[in-house]
Write a structure and sequence with these properties.
The chain has 180 residues and is of the alpha/beta class. It has one domain: NagB/RpiA/CoA transferase-like (Rossmann fold, 3-Layer(aba) Sandwich), CATH 3.40.50.10420. The protein is built from five helices and twelve strands. The chain has a seven-stranded mixed beta sheet with strand order 3-2-1-6-9-11-12, with helices on both faces. Strand 7 and strand 8 form a beta hairpin. It starts with a helix and ends with a strand. The relative contact order is 0.18.
């Protein structure tokens, strides 16, 4: 199956699990809170969840001393700002920080939590198709952890030369680290 068809399929799966998404989000947050790699990170880059994505907002409250970076789409790049409740709709309808909000230096981050539509067992992520996270991870090869539901595992899909592998994936069922 090609990437556009897989995206449609995975979005349809998400709509089916929408009623229990809150519980899945709670379990993902619990897995992350118990993960030593996450707990030791002083600065974490993450995302603001769309309606049918795993919501990690509970972690902001649970770990207030961490520096949290939230992305803003600027051209074809992600610019990272300090987590704030003062968000505005961005070009793709995703809530993001205001352009004048304080910046976060991504190079100082120890972990990036990546919204993930699907992932294969090699660690290749299927996102929304804009390439933002692939470009970001090429520039900043940080430890990356895809965040998705357990129904989103893929056996195989076409990988392009610019696709970046994740370091691992977290779902409501647990954590999976990829080893090269």
């Amino acid at each position: 199956m090609d990437k556009p068809s897989l995206r449609l399929h995975l979005k349809a799966l998400r709509r089916q699990i929408a009623p229990d998404l809150w519980q899945r989000s709670q379990r993902v947050c619990a897995w992350l809170s118990s993960c030593p790699t996450f707990r030791q990170a002083d600065q974490v880059l993450t995302y603001v969840a769309l309606a049918q994505e795993i919501d990690l907002g509970e972690l902001f409250v649970q770990f207030p001393t961490k520096t949290w970076g939230i992305p803003r789409c600027v051209g074809k790049s992600l610019v990272w700002h300090r987590q704030s409740l003062d968000l505005v709709p961005g070009p793709y309808g995703i809530h993001e920080p205001r352009p004048d909000s304080p910046l976060v230096d991504p190079a100082r981050s120890q972990l990036v939590l990546v919204p993930t539509l699907g992932c294969d067992w090699r660690g290749y992520r299927l996102g929304y198709g804009g390439g933002y996270y692939d470009r970001f991870l090429t520039q900043y090869p940080l430890l990356s952890l895809g965040v998705m539901t357990s129904q989103s595992w893929l056996e195989d899909f076409p990988v392009d030369p610019w696709d970046q592998k994740l370091g691992g994936v977290v779902t409501e069922a647990g954590l999976c680290w990829f080893v090269d």
